[in-house]
Amino acid sequence: MSGRAKHYLGSISFPVLSILGALILGGIIITAMGYDAAFAYRNLWGGAFGNMHAFSETLIQTTPLLFTAVSYSIAYKCGLINLGAEGQLHMGAMFGAFVGARFAFLPGGLHIVFVLLCGFAGGALWGFIVGALRMRFGASELITTIMLNYVALELLSFAVTNQPFRDMTPGAAPRMNVVIESVRLPILLPQTRLHLGLFFALLAIVVYYIFMWKTTKGYEMRVAGLNPNAGRYAGMNIGTNGVLAITLAGGVAGLGGIVNVIGLQPFLTEGFSNNFGFSGIAVALLGGCHPIGILVSGIFFGALNAGGIRMQLMAQVPAAAIMIIQGMIIVFAVSRELFIYFGLAGKSIFKRSQKAGGARDA
Amino acid sequence: MLEFAINFLAATIRTATPLLIASLGLVFSERAGIVNIGTEGIMLSGALLGCIGSLMFTSSLMGAIFAAAGGALLGLVFAFFTVTLRSSQVVVGFSMNIFAMGLTVTLNRLILNGVRVTAYPSFAIPGLSRIPLAGNALFNWPLLVYFALLMVPVSWFVLYRTNTGLKVRAVGDHPKACDTVGINVFKIRYGTIVFSGIMSGLAGSFISMGQLSLFVENMVAGGGFMALAVVVFGNYSPGSVLAASLLFGASDALKFRLLMTPAGIYYQFMNMLPYVITIMALCFFARKSNKPAFSAVPYRKD
Fold first, then answer.
1. How many CB atoms lie within 10 A of CB A357?
2. Nearest 5°: CA angle at A144, between A143 and A145?
3. What is the pLDDT of residues B111-159, one digit of tens each?
4. What are phi and psi of A187, to 5 degrees?
5. Burial, A22: exposed, middle or buried (Cβ in 10 Å; 0-12, 13-18, 19+)?
6. How many residue pairs from chains A and B have C-beta atoms closer than 8 A?
7. Are B38 and B93 a contacting pair, CB within 8 Å?
8. Is A319 in a helix, a strand, or coil?
9. What are the tens digits of pLDDT across the range B68-80?
């Protein structure tokens, strides 16, 4: 086998092994809790890939995950850890939904662009705060991103219950104003809910690839991530690149939020995000922040989300059990040494037993 | 006015306690060069396991043991992946949070479902608790509160006046040098991580059983991350960590007081208070610090 093929095989086999390992361990945990794991997994599969409708639901779940995964990857390539996609997604959804319910005089196409821009701006603002605080005060983005997530959730909670953001239609549950019909994204597949947002998500991955690997700015960011000192020596401004990276990252996550609103439900409610921010990080980590990797693992995690709903319905296993599996997948995926460790341990045990056997023979 | 001040102080101590317990544990692991953002998940598991233990044996002591054991176990897992396998501490911690979130929700629906369990009983300090007005509010606490306060000088002593503490501090600042002089870097890091896991588990159990006596999904609500911020804000040393926890506790207490005023209709902004204060504290205290030189860097023995 050629070296290149071997390299590709290696980079695919580890994620696949991680998924298998996590599914098996997850099955054991689900069984230990007294559920029928085989039945649960059958429903998980059926809910994700069982038929065209199920698969469209998988892709619907995949859409925001691709955005948040790209968001994590942009920051990661520049050496920053963005744990704030959840908050940035909320901010983007809020900004976009606010504009989407107003400015009815704008022509449809232009209005959609405006709404998307505002969604981007909302997320970008949340990212920029993190970047600025880090550059100015050295505040760790690990904690500021998480704290801003909570702040964004509270802001949304405020927006859905207070004027002028709240939908004042009598009898309406707490939610923001319904976006105008002409802003809504067209459906891709008839008889499903699959919307044009998926196309935008794929576009985001392509732009991510071109920006990171084909532009000077992207190159500078990758240098900052790999070796900041080398970048500094070459005259690059590591600090501003970091701020730019996390601002862009926030913007992309914000896009994911607003796309989900104008594509799926035409109004914004609390809890509209099915943990998209955090699952997106998982997608990026399993996909190794590689464009193709993000796409494939995005579909996989989308399938887990979509199938988890059916699993809860049919096998009564709470959909949250999916998070147990997700957590393990990420740990295994980033712990390649795990396989080496157990490989070696296995080998040494094997050797010892052989030696023992040999000694007995003698 | 006096009554208000006393109640405010009491509320501050109550909300500061879990932060203090968790961050005292984190002082050790952080000093040894470990950043464990999985603390949130460990606290959440501690909150759940405490309730389960307390429910099964109708004894809050068993709850505490369950919480501590769960914390230790999760700490061991974290240590195995980050110290032995040298995986990214941030990623392992992050996924531990997701794992714990899923596990606690699932187990909660399976076992607890909001059932009330035996809470931590209060113990009045003889004499002091008889002081009129203030006595009962300020000197009548569950044991964990006294434990947390006692651990402040104990941690300080261990960290700065014992051989073990010296090793812990040295391992974070220069693991290679430590290895050269025969200090087992892995052992020190495993030890501090497990210790911090136990403390985080106990802290979590105080959240569910300290005042309430039930588990609520995601009830830690960022407390683990705040504990990490408290350690940075408290400059990685026990005394300042106590002050930092009290400040954070005060911001939480302030939140609850503000909720009762007419401005309470904008409760969402009050709820933001602890998070915003965390960010501000990080900004103003991130620079001058005892942060170990090899923070979050895995040690490779070669």
1. 9
2. 90
3. 988 889 988 998 888 878 778 777 777 888 999 999 999 999 999 999 9
4. -80, 135
5. buried
6. 139
7. yes
8. coil
9. 999 999 999 999 9
The reply to whether residue A322 touches residue B102, judged by beta carbons under 8 angstroms, is yes
User: Which residues in A149-158 are b (16+ Cβ under 10 Å) and which e?
Assistant: bbbbbbbbbb
Chain B: residue whose CA lies nearest to A285: B91
What count of Cα atoms within 13 Å lies in the side-chain half-sphere of residue A5? Answer: 2
| Distance from chain centroid for Cα A163 | 31
Nearest to A147 among B88, B106, B275 (CB): B275
8-state DSSP, B80: I
ipTM of predicted complex? 0.89
Task: Give the CA count within 13 Å in the CB-facing half-sphere of A22.
Answer: 26
Beta-carbon contacts of residue A326 (< 8 Å; ≥ 6 apart): A22, A279, A282, A301, A304, B95, B98, B99, B102
Q: Is the pLDDT of residue A284 over 70?
A: yes
Asked if A33 and B107 touch (Cβ cutoff 8 Å), the reply is yes
A81 touches chain B (CB under 8 A): yes
Per-residue pLDDT, A12: 76
Domains and CATH numbers, chain B: 2-114+141-285 (1.10.3470)
Q: What pLDDT does A266 receive?
A: 85
**How confident is residue A167, by pLDDT bands cut at 50, 70 and 90?**
confident
Instruction: Please list every residue in chain A whose beta carbon sits closer than 8 Å to the beta carbon of residue B222.
Output: 146-147, 150
Average pLDDT over residues A70-91: 95
Compute the nearest-CA separation of B224 from chain A (Å). Answer: 10
Token look-up 């606010």 returns A98
Taking CB atoms within 8 Å and a gap of at least 24, the contacts of A104-110 are A104/A180, A104/A182, A108/A182, A108/A183
Whole-angstrom Cα distance, residue B152 to residue A35? Answer: 44
**Does position B232 have pLDDT exceeding 80, yes or no?**
yes
